[in-house]
Amino acid sequence: MAGKSQWGEPLLTTFPSATLDARLNSDRARKLRSIVYEVKTISMLTRHFPSKILDDDWLVLLDCQTRKQRLDYLKFLRNREREREKDMEKKRLKEISSSLFVQETKCEHSSPLYYPTAKLAKEQRRQLWQRVANAYRCGAPTLVIDCRFLPLLSPRGAELTSIQLKYLISENRDSSAPWQLYFANFDLSNDKVRRLKRRHLSVIDSSSACSPVVLTIDYTHMFGRERIVYLSPDAEEELEDVDDENVYVLGGIVDRVVERGISRQASLEAATSDRVCCKRLPLDKYVKWKSGNKFLTLTAVSSILRDVNNSGGDWESALRRNIPVRNIRSAEEKCAAGRQLHEKIRHFDNQLLQILDREIGQEPL
């Protein structure tokens, strides 16, 4: 990778539009031009590069504070493309399978009991919507995501967190026992939050979707402080029960990204500032943690709370079912090939950043 002979043709084919350029002041327009040159250079040094970069993506790259953040975001875009390609292939195979099933059913069953696939899907969506609506009507347990951190997250962290929020909506919708779901401190006056909503959370504007209740205000204005339990891995007290009366709050911060602009104990500090009870999951009591930190994804924590509530307090099964395998295996137990691959990726990224420093100059501190 060190020599010019190993450079490839630039993979960058989509550039900022004239509309975007016209929206920027002279300083940001100048910075964007230098970022485009940097991104083009990166596209000559790696094959793991997105096929398309939209104006919204250029704005995210413009807001990145470091070259490393921009590289991470480009990798994130490519990974997301690959996931979509896999999803499309799964959908294609599912449609083929469904079509064959319908044809077989039509041949085998000519009775009035046959239910067309489209009508069945519509009925299933109606039942899902009804279950979520009943959760609010009948006082199901309440989960609140504190979104105050979204504007402070790094571009990659904000994208990952928004995707987690989208997954959270889907999992709650598909659950046999959905909870009341709220997004609080969702600041729609913030450009970054509006962009994330447009990219990943447009479902919350749908009148027909099983969407959460979105609050621009703080959750303490919606619920009594005596009912609120803010969950944080840094809390001193362990959570013992998950009952229907309490309101459980999770900080909207993705688990695997170290955020320079956010305190490592942000959720504990938020709970202290809001004067609400703060507790942590009883991980040490039921799980032998062997590697990694004890920050879980929003979807993992949500599933744990739901399973404990449904089972009447079976923490051990809930934790075993929802904690990633990587956290309950020691470094020695993990796949050596996987560790070597991650080490190669880190080494490649470091080399790439060094080449950028040499070819286009180091970033100003």
TrEMBL record:
Q: Which organism is it from?
A: Necator americanus (Human hookworm)
Concerning Gene3D superfamilies, the annotation shows: 3.40.1280.30
Instruction: Tell me which Gene Ontology terms the entry assigns under biological process.
Output: methylation; mitochondrial tRNA 5'-end processing; positive regulation of mitochondrial translation
From the UniProt record, which GO molecular function terms apply? methyltransferase activity; tRNA binding
Domain SAM-dependent MTase TRM10-type, chain residue ranges per copy? 128-330
Q: InterPro entries given for it?
A: MT_TRM10-typ (IPR028564), MT_TRM10-typ_sf (IPR038459), tRNA_m1G_MeTrfase_euk (IPR007356)
- One GO term describing the cellular component: mitochondrion
Q: What is this protein called?
A: tRNA (Guanine-N(1)-)-methyltransferase
Keywords of this entry = Methyltransferase, S-adenosyl-L-methionine, Transferase
